[in-house]
Amino acid sequence: MNKFKTYFVMLVLGYFMSMATNTALASSDIKIGVMQPLSGVYAGPGQSGLDGFLLALKPYTNNSHQNSIEVITLDTEAKPARAPELATSLLMQHKADFIFGPAHSGVAMGMIKVLRGKDTVMIIPNAGAAAATGSLCSPNIFRTSFSSWQPSYPMGKVALDKGYKDVYLISWNYGMGRESLEAFEESFEAGGGNVVKKVLMPFPSTNFQPHISDIAAQDPDAVFVFFAGGGAAKFVKDYDAMGLRGKIPLLGSGFLTEGTLEAQGEAAEGVLTTLHYAEQLDVPKNLEFRETFHTEYGHYPDIYAVQGYDAGQAIIKTINLLDGDVSDKQAVINTMEKLTINSPRGDFTFSRAHNPVQNIYLREVKNGVNVVASVAAEALEDPARGCKL
Amino acid sequence: MTTELFFVQLINGIQYGLLLFLIASGLTLVFGVMGILNLAHGSMYMVGAYLVWYFVTVTGSFTVSAVISAIIALTLGILIERVLIQRLYNRNHLDQVLLTIGMIFVFNSLQSILFGNDPYGVAVPGALGGGIPFTDNSSYPIYRIFAALICVAIAGALYYVVRSTRLGMLIRAGESNREMVEALGVNIKSLYTIVFAIGVMLAAVSGIIAAPMRSIVPGMGESVLITCFVVVVIGGMGSITGAFVGALLVGLISTFSSVLMPSMSNMIIYIFMILVLLVKPQGLFAK
């Protein structure tokens, strides 16, 4: 028993000592907490977003600049259960001025629970859950990526314009999947389109073959899907393997062909998707960003890097406009929400719910590249349902 | 559901079931003979898929890559058995679970370090590309038919080896009475090494065969592991025949349930497993 007592006392002492050293070492003016998945299944997008973010911060994180910025990085492992604890530590222990993250919507919900209305500014570089800038919106929560609604909504009109009347919908039964299909239905049905069937598979099942057989039997004018990552790669390959490519057009939210084209190969040719970015987008800022990123990291950036970079830009611009004084959080929020971000995806502003008001591009896969065909929706603003800001 | 669609889904289900059998066979073999519960079995499936992807990008030939990958897997199996598993024969199942769960983390990290976290794909080998006309507007990929045939061939070979060869006889003897086999002068240690290595190779081979049909992603091992356990539990732990029947049942049920009631399809396999266990607590073909 005595042993345990000693351990306990040592632990408590150790804790206070670490707190003391933390305050003693805190010489930097501005603290940014990072909560990204750096291990596990989401590590790819997590690291990429962080790389983009740090690139935007780079000139300011060395000590020569008048405002030095300290970055505290925590790995969320894309585990929603850990999110509140990590967010609390950044907020209470580290007193972070800004919190950058996460990639995963479940983690975002956990963070928002803790950070909503608090004295720090949270800036989301990916997680598209509608609620983050919808029913759970808050003055101190910003997003530089997209809402789940944004990439899919314009596709309904695209489908109608192409003359597709009967469309088959399929996705995973989870937030992003459901919200994407609903957004498509909203614009598609408003324009007179008919949804033949809507299938929500359990996440993350990739047993697509029975469903693709069903699609062949239903013979719709087109198919609209939301899948991402490995599942997206497999769906597109299965669709081709069953001989439907070129017979029934495949439409998707842009994530169907983001970071997966190499895995999909020939099978992805001709797939149409809508998204707020395309790697080959002909915008001067995009060309410049791609080269800078390549010089820094030795490979070209993806969409997650762009979203992270823009979050970094938003923070730096705000700090500069306030001459480095971020102590008044209301001033920080007022400044940030008025920004126009010169993004590689084209300029965007923030909506009243702090989600980007941005162009959505229609892209077609040609020779293994997402080629921009047109602007599917200009300066599209998420309806932010349930947000009282 | 029309009759035509019914038959289409029947074929889908059988094809899925055959692949499940191939993955599960190694797991049940190792458990049946050695009493080792290898939770890292799914990781071996992943190893097979990543290796074949890697060698295809290097050599360009699927056949060559498949052979190299299978040999590497066999060697890996021998190494793992000799260095790690051998220490656990006299320990309880929990220690084995601890070790093999640890191996899952090690292999996942190795995968992340060596190959990164992007999804990869292996192109279907040229000679097996394309499909045969199937319904009005769809075709059935030749590679999937080939994969199903390979699975049947391996099932047949396993059955033959276990039933009719000396190695099979030793395996069966080792299953029922380890001490007696040892007392009769058989080197049970190397027998176990062989069986474990074959188990690892079967998992890797199913990863190799599955590679052109699915995407190669982090975590792919864990996703098959659970289905694999369902198959083995339904069939009866340790029974190859059980794994075969269990795999076909799970393949068919999951195919039909995912079309008829997609939102419940994951649950239905487990409900089926519970029903089987209520009637036959040891599984359908338990010894």
Question: Can you summarize this structure?
Answer:
With 389 residues, chain A is an alpha/beta fold. Chain A contains 12 helices and 14 strands.
Task: Describe what this molecule looks like in 3D.
The complex is a heterodimer of chains A (389) and B (287). Chain A is an alpha/beta fold and 389 residues long. Chain A has 2 domains: 2-146 and 283-354, Rossmann fold (3-Layer(aba) Sandwich), CATH 3.40.50.2300; 150-275 and 361-380, 3-Layer(aba) Sandwich (Rossmann fold). Helices cover 42% and strands 21% of the residues of chain A. Chain A contains 12 helices and 14 strands. Chain A has helices spanning 2-25, 43-61, 83-93, 105-115, 149-161, 175-190, 209-218, 229-241, 261-264, 284-297, 303-321, 329-336, and strands spanning 30-36, 69-75, 98-100, 121-124, 141-143, 166-172, 194-201, 222-226, 250-253, 272-275, 340-341, 348-350, 356-366, 369-380. In chain A, the strands form 2 sheets. In chain A, strands 6, 7, 8, 9, 10, 11, 12, 13 and 14 form a 9-stranded mixed β-sheet that branches. Chain A is globular. The model of chain A is unreliable at 17-27 (pLDDT under 50). Chain B is mainly α and 287 residues long. Chain B has a single domain, classed as ABC transporter involved in vitamin B12 uptake, BtuC (Orthogonal Bundle). Chain B is built from 11 helices and 2 strands; from the N terminus they run ααααββααααααα. Chain B has helices at 3-34, 41-59, 62-83, 93-115, 142-164, 166-176, 178-183, 188-210, 220-235, 240-260, 265-279, and strands at 131-133, 139-141. In chain B, strands 1-2 form a two-stranded antiparallel ribbon. In chain B, α1 crosses α9 and α3 runs antiparallel to α8. The longest helix of chain B has 32 residues, at 3-34. Chain B is globular, with a radius of gyration of 19 Å. Chain B: Keywords: Amino-acid transport, Cell membrane, Membrane, Transmembrane, Transmembrane helix, Transport. Chain B: It is a multi-pass membrane protein.
